[in-house]
Amino acid sequence: MYDVVVIGGGPAGYTxxxxxxxxxxxxxxxxxxxxxxxxxxxxCIPSKALIELGSAVGVARALSRHGxxxxxxxxxxxKTLRHISRAVTKAREGVKYLLSEVDVIQGFGRLKNTHLVKxxxxxxxxxxxxxxxxxxxxxxxxxxxFSFDGVKIIHNRHFFELESxxxxxxxxxxxxxxxxxxxxxxxxxxxxxxxxxxxKILPEVDKDVSDVVAKYLARSGVKIYTSSSAQxxxxxxxxxxxxxxxxxGTAEIRVEKVLIAAGRSYNTKDIGLSEVGVETDExxxxxxxxLMRTTIPNIYAAGDITGPPLLAHKAFREGxxxxxxxxxxxxxxxxxxxxxVIYTHPEVGFVGFSESQATRIGVKHRVVKFPxxxxxxxxxxxRSTPDGFVKxxxxxxxxxxxxxxxxxxxxxxxxxxxxLAMSQRMELRDLRKAIxxxxxxxxxxxxxxxxxxxxxxxxxxx
Length: 462
Description:
Layout: E1 2-7, H1 11-22, E2 27-31, H2 37-42, H3 44-62, H4 77-98, E3 103-106, E4 108-113, E5 116-120, E6 125-134, E7 138-140, E8 153-154, H5 156-159, E9 168-172, H6 176-187, E10 191-195, H7 207-219, E11 223-225, E12 228-236, E13 239-246, E14 249-255, E15 257-260, E16 264-266, H8 273-276, E17 299-301, H9 312-327, E18 340-342, E19 348-352, H10 355-360, E20 365-371, H11 376-379, E21 389-395, E22 401-407, H12 411-423, H13 428-431, H14 443-452
């Protein structure tokens, strides 16, 4: 009998397995397809490899504004995807190495009872476990009138398994995935149409943040349609004809591919949860406590199936918590605050409450901003982001940081300073004691903290 059997080899599953092993437990992990899950194979790793290529082309072209002319003679669309494939393979092999002392079993795992997992693979078998961790993740969800065919109408998994980048694409859904891929493809000379049913792209962030990203995406050549819906009309030769309806009227566009990036569904059906008494909500999200324990004491869940945010680093943390709880660790790690990063140009980073969320829940708060135009480091950058800013949301009475948002170069790294401050419940006056090197993007932290205390250094006069 195993001490722990983990179902799912993505970020939550493999970190749970590794942590359980570190705590001296006997562990098996069941994975139906590839180790590393969504993040390694079709999400974080391939998308960042694509973004890196797009950014490099963007920098090369931006150099002409500074007296250096480089010509991008051609873009080999097949070779580009081979670079991405190599990055995925390397990351996947890394996960395999980390699990070298775990019994990894290939197949589809399903709960037979609270201590037994049935595995259907090349051969069927059953494994016993004192504890079980469910980490089966999510899968792409389609939208009305579109059906995935894996060739013309695709999701992110299909996209990153293409043999060549398309000449044109319509991306339905302007959340993080849609915006990231849009910007990268536009830099690589793909005709991109980005369609969002809400009144702004990146619906999860404040409008002042999303407006900056929209401006830069449009500048790179992305055609953006907000307050708009898309409808499949027909296959037309090698292309797909779709109708876009929105505030500007109705238009028809012809594209080589349609990428649906409009949400995920939870992989909690048909894995035996209800049969053994594990409760889920109406969306299929598994209900857990702060130790990631489900309604059945020896069954835990971690990662995407425990609900938003659907992020790899949130899954890492939950996998660790579940394993440490099973191992009897006295002080398990907290589940939050969880920062989020969107790898567009400019980057977006945010943590805690947004300004609109704070307003909606009725908490008295104040907002402090510091602009990138006042930041020395950004003015030295080839692709500067002078429209960017950092924003703090502070509770009015206590002055505590409720949330932070950054849009601009370096946002993906600097947001972690605010996450650290929030996780440790640090006071602004204590944060001001830290010295940040100059010139760096980390100065955003010290500059806005000083501004929040009424002692701005480089903030422009209001």
